[in-house]
Amino acid sequence: MERIPQSPPKIQPISLNIDRPLWSVMIPVYNCSEFITDALNSILIQDLGENLMQIEVIDDCSTDADVESLVKKVGGERVMYYRQQKNVGSLRNFETCINRAKGKLVHILHGDDRVKSGFYDKISNLFKIHPEAGAAFCRYHFIDENGEIKKEGKYNHNREGLLKDALFVMSAEQPTQYVATVVKREVYEKLGSFYGVVFGEDWEMWVRIAKNYPIAYTPSILADYRRHIGSISYPEKETGQNVIDLGITILNIEKQLPEDMRHIMRDQKLACKKSFIKSANLIWQQISDRKKANQLIKKAISIKTSDRNFYFLLFKFYLKVIFNIKKKNVVHSNYFSKKISPPKL
């Protein structure tokens, strides 16, 4: 199988003849052992019991620790453990999570994230009040590697219930993350799993769901999304791959929108073009790889939208290259550095 499927992988339906819990909390992990205890404890403290909640860790052949022993130490027999036969990559690991999920509601909680008390009760209630919803999400905090809250997610609408103009909300700027989002398994069965890229694949999924189903929302902040060096979403400074994936994601989302809505992607396209230049500049400053930097610039130009500021930034970048201008001590310290910002989502 391709590590990065080019179309949504199919999700097999659950047999109607088996007893199913309401919840499947599926925890994909890969080399994030220092955070797994935090993630599991955040679930177990609000455990609804085996009849209502499946809890399972899906390990993509981690090499940083004996994850199975760690899971048993924290969760005993309550938390199931499954290890891939070989490393399959994040998208295939998410696909495995969904296929192994038995519950009606699927929560993919990455092993380095965590939920706050009340998450499962609140989301359960949202689906109870709005049974037509295909997915539901809450607001969330960004936290660092030490678990310290750094800021709130940008989406802060204060009305609880079904989103008005859900497709617009999900497309205009990614309002949620895996940790804050729960999807009915039957929705994955209809729409398929994640595909195409390893950075931004969730944004495309939330848009795909919004195009086909109502989405419920609560303004309560009930999840913590951790940014740290080594996570999937951390910028890859030497390749710019995350920015490339972001560009692909934006174009894939734009294709899903009706013609009269595609204008809402303009700001995201402009932000992405500028992120390409920032990444090209970072590659030039750190490793002087002009070829890789030029590849990113070409991709930025290929995104069709106009902005004078973009061409000004482009001009500044090539002046630096031509005159070999470099700053000292340009580093990727962490996501919350004031010197270098990650690609905006």
TrEMBL record:
GO molecular function: hexosyltransferase activity
Residues of the Glycosyltransferase 2-like domain: 24-157
UniProt superkingdom: Bacteria
Keywords: Transferase
Record InterPro entries: Glyco_trans_2-like (IPR001173), Nucleotide-diphossugar_trans (IPR029044)
A Pfam family it matches: Glycos_transf_2
Name of the protein in question: Glycosyl transferase family 2
Record organism: Cyclobacterium marinum (strain ATCC 25205 / DSM 745 / LMG 13164 / NCIMB 1802) (Flectobacillus marinus)
